[in-house]
Write a structure and sequence with these properties.
This protein is 56% helix and 10% strand. It has 41 helices and 14 strands.
């Protein structure tokens, strides 16, 4: 066995036991004996392949290997030994193992720097008991060197819970061993909007543990500290760490851009796409959160403490499954709140050994960030003392350290220290005394700012107008002007990124930029001093009005999904643009921004969650709004928001006002005419009330109008809805063949993704009883297009689920039903959820009648709650004639459950499901579907 830890390129192996806590609780004596044997097997496997054990934690170990091949052999040998051991406990021990290769930095004789260890740990925790996972870095070293009888299965790219960029993960298996595991426990496996972080998370192990423990004891935790100390980064890391605790994920709400105290609840609601017509903003938000189990991260609350405290108190009282993690420079002072101050990074004492000082988190951060601008930067005997002193002079404030580290591209650490020390002597009146930390950070920002050229200074200040991330194109359009030349913007931004004043982020739509909130506030102050705020704010709003106008013009064609993703990622900028237009009284601009939002009804054929919720009522109330082109669209938008909330009569009244306004205004905006929206709204209302023939007629009229105007994709969508609605209402497939064929033809001509998917499903529905092979082929083509991760088409998945059910393909039905439920659950779409429950219930009926009975009750309950008892009664009437295949399937499910379990048990299960709220029912369905069929069945 090695007597010293390997260095250089090292492969780390980390292990842990799955479910060991419960086993310790059930039989501690037996578990104690089992762990002795476990350790013997693990140590033997590591030693046999020249590994070095450098840490023991919980029920696992951490070891380092000089070669990736040795590490793989040790992992495989350990897993095999565990599987073959005759355990004398309730169930065999099953270990999860992670392997990751990285450059190792030995801190002392037995330990390594934490970054690669943390990466390996998060890789290991993503696995399941009995599973060995390997990072892409390790796989690269194993190519052509994999031991005999072993192979690697590519599990794809995943975001680990360190919030870094996606990493490719592989599973190690022995030949012939094809044990199926559930999806990896990575960020991708949980709902939420935690952003990826380009920079690594340094240190803070104890701080993460403190906040995690606080969240176990309290549902409201506020992380406090001075600006730049790393509150947001710590909170994001904690959210990633505790994510598995929350069924409905972790959600970040950035409050820094919110200036109106009345806008806090609205900002939170926007994250969950709540519509609030007919109810208070808070009421709508509470309604959607009431039964959720999630972590809500409220970031940068200090300027809105009063309204944030009010909302947090309301959520704490009304939403027992929601925990709040807030970041602020001070607490909210509400009952039950735990305050945790974030200290600066430790820098060590002046009398400490230098070896200890260079191993501190502050120095690690400096070195890591310095290497981002100067790849060959290393600590040496000549510069280590200077680096330590720089970190000490900056009081361990992370943002200040990052700004200083960015200067190593031009200054050595010793030169940096001399200049920095002089600045702080000035701050403290020439004395080498302590400077307050807010002054330390201010000095660091001032210094970095003063070293910029005049164009860089002005560009940085102007970029403060963007509340979130932004593109190069946006900067060129909004921020140019003396002394910033358009052709110089790329070089200027590159320089600001190198100095850590601007952060880059990689997205599937391209590179985006953002300012840290402290830097944004600093830039905002400078912009105000120059008197440019109003001018830049207006240019910002005009630019994003153009973004929306281009999206509205091209939304119903080949670019649909690309535009939907773009609008989603620009949500913060679009909201800020509209609010600024409203606040400055620019009615024409506000109407344009609201009117060009792609209408809610057409988003049924786009990815769920991509709808930009617009406060249409505020725009309608602006002076002169009725005379602005586009006013009719804002009325129609408000009509849809009203309909979503079940206020059918009010929605129809607003719809009529929109039609009248469209006739009155001489120059309506380009795009589908209001009449199309009006007929679709009538169809949606009729469908909700079970009036199928009326809904079919309305969809047909909408399709005709859309086709007349050249919007072939939109016409295709409405014809597809005609087919599915007509079949629910009793029409035969033969009557609908021509309609389905026309829908497919128009979709192909338009190349609109949502239309293509829905038309394929409509065509398949008409063929399931006559040509099952062709129906299946159409279904598979639809699923391939509708189920792309990140670009799912919710209604497409739902209608595909109907087809799969009609084909009695129960595995595919469950997979599609789960995907549809996951997408629909956030906007309380009861009719869609009810239909999904019904299909999943029938899919479970033959093998799992107890699950089917509960889901059958959930389906009936959701139909009843959808807005009118008429809907379920009308559907039931159709079902009695054998027409409504959804209700026919529900009745068939009930018969199967009763035959298998007895009528009394069937009634009991149905009552259990009917009593569930939407969240409970969705959680029940997903839990049982994931356990049975986690991945898409092969077809």
């Amino acid at each position: 066995m090695n007597v010293s830890p390997p260095s250089g390129t090292v492969t780390f192996l980390l292990t842990d036991l799955e479910g060991s806590t419960r086993m310790w609780e059930q039989d501690p004596d037996a578990m104690k004996a089992a762990m002795v044997r476990h350790d013997e097997l693990l140590e033997k496997a590591i030693a046999a392949h020249r590994g070095f054990v450098f840490a023991r934690m919980g029920d696992g170990m951490a070891a380092a290997f000089a070669t990736a091949r040795d590490a793989v052999c040790a992992a495989a040998g350990f897993q095999q030994a565990l599987a073959e051991e005759p355990w004398r406990i309730a169930r065999p021990l099953r270990a999860r193992v992670g392997l990751h290769t990285d450059e190792a930095v030995i801190v002392d004789d037995t330990g390594y720097a934490s970054l690669p260890i943390n990466r390996c740990s998060r890789l290991m925790t993503a696995a399941h008991g009995g599973q060995t996972v390997i990072s892409g870095a390790t796989e690269m070293l194993l190519r052509d060197q994999l031991p005999d009888a072993m192979e690697l299965i590519d599990l794809g790219e995943h975001r680990l819970r360190d919030l870094g960029r996606p990493t490719r993960i592989f599973q190690l298996v022995r030949d012939g061993d094809r044990e199926e595991f559930p999806p990896l426990r990575t960020l991708d496996a949980f709902p939420g909007n935690l952003p990826a972080q380009v920079s690594s998370f340094i240190g803070r192990t104890a701080d993460v543990a403190r906040v995690v423990a606080a969240l176990e004891a309290s549902r409201v935790v506020t992380v406090t500290g001075v600006g730049g100390v790393g509150k947001t980064r710590l909170a994001l890391q904690v959210a990633a760490h505790v994510l598995p605790r929350y069924r409905d994920g972790a959600w970040v709400v950035e409050l820094a851009p919110v200036r109106d105290p009345n806008g806090v609840a609205e900002a939170v609601g926007l994250v969950f796409q709540t519509a609030n017509q007919g109810a208070s903003v808070e009421g709508a938000l509470i309604e959607i959160l009431r039964h959720k189990q999630l972590l809500l991260l409220l970031d940068n609350c200090e300027h809105l403490l009063g309204p944030v405290a009010t909302l947090a108190t309301l959520i704490e009282r009304e939403c027992p499954g929601v925990a709040i993690l807030a970041t602020s420079r001070e607490g909210m002072a509400i009952e039950g709140e735990q305050l945790l101050a974030v200290p600066p990074l430790p820098v060590g004492g002046r009398g400490d050994d230098l070896a200890h000082q260079v191993s501190t988190d502050a120095v690690s951060l400096f070195v890591e960030r310095a290497r981002r601008v100067k790849a060959d930067f290393t600590l040496t005997q000549d510069n280590s003392e200077a680096v330590v002193e720089v970190c000490r002079r900056l009081d361990g404030v992370p943002l200040a350290i990052e700004l200083a580290a960015a200067r190593v591209i031009a200054l050595s650490p010793n030169e940096l220290l001399r200049r920095l020390d002089h600045r702080f002597q000035v701050l403290s009146g020439g004395r080498r005394g302590a400077v307050e930390r807010h002054a330390t950070l201010r000095a660091a920002i001032d210094w970095s700012y003063e070293l910029l050229s005049a164009p860089e200074q002005r560009l940085l200040a102007r970029m403060a107008v963007f509340p979130g991330t932004f593109t190069l194109e946006a900067v060129e359009d909004v921020c140019c002007g003396d002394p910033v030349e358009r052709e110089a913007v790329m070089d200027l931004i590159t320089g600001l990124v190198a100095r850590s004043l601007v952060v880059t982020e990689s997205h599937d739509v391209g590179t985006r930029y953002r300012l840290l909130e402290t830097i944004r506030q600093y830039g905002d102050e400078r912009l105000s001093v120059w008197g440019e705020t109003d001018h830049i704010v207006t240019r910002h709003a005009q630019f994003y009005a153009g973004v929306l106008a281009r999206a509205a013009e091209n939304f119903y064609g080949p670019e649909q999904l690309v535009l939907a993703r773009q609008l989603n990622i620009e949500r913060g900028n679009l909201r800020a643009a509209l609010n600024n237009a409203i606040d400055t009284g620019d009615t024409a601009l506000a109407v344009r921004l609201a009117a060009d939002n792609p209408n809610l009804q057409t988003n049924a054929a786009t990815p769920m969650g991509e709808v930009l919720m617009i406060p249409a009522a505020r725009v309608l109330d602006m002076p002169g709004a009725p005379d602005v082109p586009g006013y009719s669209r804002v009325l129609m938008l408000e009509s849809w928001l009203t309909l979503i909330n079940g206020m059918y009569d009010d929605a129809e009244e607003l719809c009529q006002q929109a039609l009248e306004a469209e006739q009155r205004l001489a120059h309506p905006l380009p795009g589908p005419r209001i009449d199309v929206d009006a007929w679709v709204l009538k169809a949606h209302k009729a469908l909700s009330l079970g009036a199928y023939d009326e809904a079919v007629t309305a969809y047909q009229l909408a399709a005709e109008l859309a086709k007349e105007d050249g919007y072939l994709g939109l016409a295709s969508v409405h014809l597809a809805y005609c087919v599915s609605t007509a079949m629910l209402g009793g029409h035969t497939a033969e009557e609908l063949i021509e309609t389905a064929e026309e829908s497919v033809t128009l979709a192909r001509q338009s190349r609109m993704p949502g239309a293509d998917v829905l038309s394929l499903n409509a065509m398949a529905l008409t063929l399931v009883d006559r040509d099952r092979d062709r129906a299946r082929a159409l279904l598979n083509e639809s699923v391939d297009r509708a189920g792309t991760p990140g670009a799912e088409i919710a209604t497409g998945l739902l209608t595909a689920c109907l087809v799969a059910s009609r084909l009695s393909d129960w595995d595919l039905t469950l997979w599609l039903g789960a995907r549809a439920l996951y997408l629909w659950r956030w906007n309380n779409s009861l009719l869609q959820a009810a239909t999904s429950f019904a299909q999943c219930a029938r899919a479970f009926a033959d093998e799992r009648p107890e699950v089917a009975g509960v889901l059958q009750g959930a389906a009936y309950g959701a139909f009843h709650t959808a807005g009118s008892v008429t809907s379920i009664q009308g559907a039931a009437g159709a079902a009695s004639s054998g027409a409504n295949f959804v209700l026919v399937g529900l009745r068939e499910t009930g018969d199967i459950v009763a035959a298998a379990l007895g009528m009394d048990k069937a009634r009991e299960l149905r009552a259990t499901g009917a009593a569930m709220n939407l969240d409970e029912a969705v959680d029940y369905a997903l839990r049982h579907i994931d356990g049975r069929q986690p991945n898409r069945p092969n077809r």
